[in-house]
Amino acid sequence: MTTTTPPVAAGTQAVDKRSTRVSRVRKRLNTRIATVCAIVIAIVWTIPTFGLFVSSFRPEDQLKTTGWWTFFRDPQFTLQNYQDVLFGQSASSGRLASYFINSLVITVPSVLFPLAFAALAAYALAWINFRGRDWLYIGIFALQIVPLQMALVPLLSFFSRGVSLGGVTLLPAWNLDGAQNFAQVWFAHTCFALPFAVFLLHNFISQLPKDLMEAARVDGATHPRIFRTIVLPLVAPALAAFGIFQFLWVWNDLLVALIFAGGGEGTAPLTVRLAELAGTRGNEWQRLTAGAFVSIVVPLIVFLSLQRYFVRGLLAGSVKG
Amino acid sequence: MASARLRQAFAITGVLGLALSATACGTGSSSNDGGSSNAGSAECAPYENYQGHEGKKVTIYSSIREIEAERLAESWKQFEDCTGIDIDHTGNAEFEAQLPVRVDGGNAPDLAFIPQPGLLQRFAEQGQIKAASAETKAMAEANYPADWLKYSTVNGTFYAAPLGSNVKSFVWYSPAMFQEKGWSVPTTWDDLIKLSDTIADSGIKPWCAGIESGDATGWPATDWIEDLMLRTQTPEVYDQWTTHQIPFNDPRVAEAVDRAGTILKNEKYVNGGFGGVRSIATTAFQDGGLPITQGKCALHRQASFYANQWPEGTKVAEDGDVFAFYFPAIDPAKGKPVLGGGEFVTAFADRPEVQAVQTYLASGEHANSRAKIGDWVSANNKLDLANVANPIDKLSVELLQDDSTVFRFDGSDLMPAAVGAGTFWKGMVEWINGGNTANVLQGIESSWK
């Protein structure tokens, strides 16, 4: 991004200062002790996941009576847990694939909608002058503080009863049924994601050099054109960073999906299914070990394929401003 | 010119996006199998009274899931075919937390299977549930003992009939081990204590217990206290205790807790297979009785549903690997106190098809239809014992249908959630960890506002 910065004296100075600071930090972190510390932390953080992974291959009675480390002394290996999770023992539990698809149907629009709306809003808040702009931005920023749980009942009421004021119906109830419930989930996730998304993208977009915008304006570009041909390509790392955040959050979400998607097979995501796997009295909890690894696959692919942007996006967001 | 078109394009994209999110996926669900009822055939004769609601849909919400949910769906399949009513059941682990949210948000299910009378009472007082129809009431009164129905009657209005039940007053043991050592199943409290001493002298700790259960850690111990409240006190005192007419730290409650302590906090008796008294608090309830199968423990007081926890291949029967006997009364003259739990079929809508399903679920037809599929206990007195295959279920049903049985609902489900599912649980953990009875009860009492 710095390559597009015109060589203004103050700007280069800032860049220089930053780069020396970064290199100093890098140098200091590049000692042997720091490396050892990093490795130790990485190992400690990975142990629980590793234990879960080992457990997922252990037979039920072993799993329930001894710790996962006994595996190394007395290795007993089975794929039964994965068999149960993926193909089920009974007629209805053998349809993990449909929950997988539900999860995708919920997640993809729930990532794209806030991305699109937030990018537009952030651009407008950063580069279009209108009255009350700063107050609006502060308002959106402040909305991040509202806990999601507080909004659940009102939002559900908004869907199922509509909005009426003094007996006058302002908005009718949605009256959705079956697969239409996906719309509620998208709506809810989009609402909950927007404040943070607008905040994050605004930080990026407002840091773009003003000269660039002015040059574009002088050349006759309109706001939509500037947005599309200049802003969007430049903030791609930020979009990717937020996209990953939102993807992981929606993919792992249980609460919002439970309330807005209904628990039926037609709309419930993978997380709802996983919560059910242990059975009514939690006596089949050995299946959760395998279930966790099945559900981890997609986020892992997304994260690994986009992590380049993730790190770049995080850094850019934190250092600027 | 170009800019205007571009702006237009943007506006259209925006509107399209919104419209898509609002009306997405108009395909709807294709699960509607109503409209093909064969009401006239002979097998539909029992459902004659429920006719006339063809093509209607009734939604049910409960905490029943996985295999048990499938069996439930199977149990009302014929009813659906005959009446044309489509029953849509959703089971969820977060049921207790989600139901109030759904109700407050105006998205209540038609029917809910509520396992806590305390929650049912709260809904009734807020006017959010519908009183049962006259037919449902008549059906429930004909099929269930009055001991049960009083839990779903709030201020004189009857709301819900029970569905499934479980019996908590059981002690699990190993018939094989008992036979080998020459022990016999105790039928009185004194015999039970004598047996415990005999077992303790033989070198193993007789009792094992585990009360760890995630967020709900402590609940198995509350069942102990409730069972002993019913045994050391009269059922009336038990009712006064669960409705807070007597304080939680009443001397009579303390007596019951101390009586439980003579087993649970006796280093000589517990904790077979796990360690000392304190290991009770850290042992998962699922694992609490497993040492019985390894011969490291002889007795485990736990509900009938513990049958699901035994390792695969364990034969649960009177002549098998494990079985349960009735947790004996202290004074047999006062009858057989039985502690248990169950769900109540509560209606949030009063459409005729909802009432029809509510009535049907209280009927003997459903109880028997469900029992035939297996693993089911109900206090429904139309339930034919011949349809109950599983020995432990059979024993439970016999106990529930026995005339000398004095049934009381699990007290922690009757108390306000802050106590029954909060301080009572935590207090029990403290008590097991060495807390003194008076202090623990005082703490619970002060939390009950």
UniProtKB/TrEMBL annotation, chain A:
Source domain of life: Bacteria
Membrane topology type: Multi-pass membrane protein
GO cellular component: plasma membrane
Keyword field contains Membrane: yes
Protein localization: Cell membrane
Record-linked CDD domains: TM_PBP2
Main location: membrane
Keywords: Cell membrane, Membrane, Transmembrane, Transmembrane helix, Transport
Keyword Endoplasmic reticulum: no
GO biological process terms held by the UniProt record: transmembrane transport
Record-annotated membrane-spanning stretches: 33-54, 99-128, 135-159, 186-205, 226-248, 254-275, 287-306
Pfam family, one: BPD_transp_1
InterPro entries the UniProt entry points to: MetI-like, MetI-like_sf
Domain ABC transmembrane type-1, first and last residues per copy: 100-306
Protein family (similarity comment): Belongs to the binding-protein-dependent transport system permease family.
Name of the protein this chain belongs to: Carbohydrate ABC transporter permease
Provenance organism: Verrucosispora sioxanthis
Taxon lineage: Bacteria, Bacillati, Actinomycetota, Actinomycetes, Micromonosporales
Automatic annotation (TrEMBL), chain B:
Claim: Signal is one of the keywords in the record: yes
Stored InterPro entries: Bact_solute-bd_prot1, SBP
Region forming the signal peptide: 1-24
UniProt keyword Transport present: yes
Pfam family, one: SBP_bac_1
Keyword line: Signal, Transport
PANTHER family xrefs: ARABINOSE-BINDING PROTEIN-RELATED, OSMOPROTECTIVE COMPOUNDS-BINDING PROTEIN GGTB
Family classification: Belongs to the bacterial solute-binding protein 1 family.
UniProt protein name: Carbohydrate ABC transporter substrate-binding protein
Source organism per UniProt: Verrucosispora sioxanthis
